[in-house]
Amino acid sequence: MHAFESLVAQFGLDGVSMKDLAREAGVSVGAIYLEFPNKDALILMVEEKWRSHVAERNAAIVAGDQPPEDKLRGILVEHAAAFSQIVREDRAAFELLSGAQRLRYLGRTTADTRKKIFELMAGSVAGVLQEGCEAGAFAVEDPESTSRLLVQAVAEYFSAPEVAKRPHDDVVREVEDLFALLMKAIRAR
Question: Phi and psi dihedrals of 36, rounded to 5?
Fold first, then answer.
């Protein structure tokens, strides 16, 4: 798996064959097929690892001792900054998160990856909004609905093709500015 992640980060999902993977991992192609029925299964493992990373990171932020606004910053702003860096350095991340990859054997596109991450983000944000409302920090009537709106507002900064077009520092500054505007809208007066 490590060899596959390394290769696809450099060459992209379609730029790596099972033969390339076998050579990199120091095993036979047959040995790979004993563990993975096809290349799509490897791609799904990478995709699942990323989703797990997002879920674990957000869970740690939500469980932390910071004030609710700092938690939202961690989930939205810091995640957008990390995402901006990742899609610039990892070609597979760019391809998976732009929804461009068609998984031949599974009959779906990787656009589902972005949707699943959106749902993870919205769930984490909803929990923080609820906590912030209970603490008197936020004035939000419907944390579930508002969480989706907040994540949607920041979603441009989770779009690989759009993020890659702009310098990283500009992306970070823009998402910080957007976050400040969004916080003005939901803070308790």
Answer: -130, 125
List of E strands, 71-181: 102-103, 108-109
Q: Which two tokens stand for residue 165?
A: 């077009």
- Phi, psi of 103, deg, nearest 5: -85, 105
Global pTM reads 0.84
Q: Are 75 and 61 in contact (CB under 8 A)?
A: yes
Give all domains of the chain, ordered by start, each with its CATH number: 47-186 (1.10.357.10)
What tokens were used for 44?
A: 């799904």
Using alpha carbons, select from 7, 4, 67, 73 the residue that is nearest to residue 39: 4
The string of pLDDT tens digits covering residues 110-148 is 657 778 888 999 999 999 999 999 999 999 999 999 999
At 102, give phi and psi (nearest 5°): -95, 120
Whole-number Å distance between alpha carbons of 16 and 91: 12
Q: Tokens in use for 154?
A: 């920041």
pLDDT tens digits for range 164-175: 888 999 999 999
- Which residue ranges in the chain fall short of pLDDT 50? none
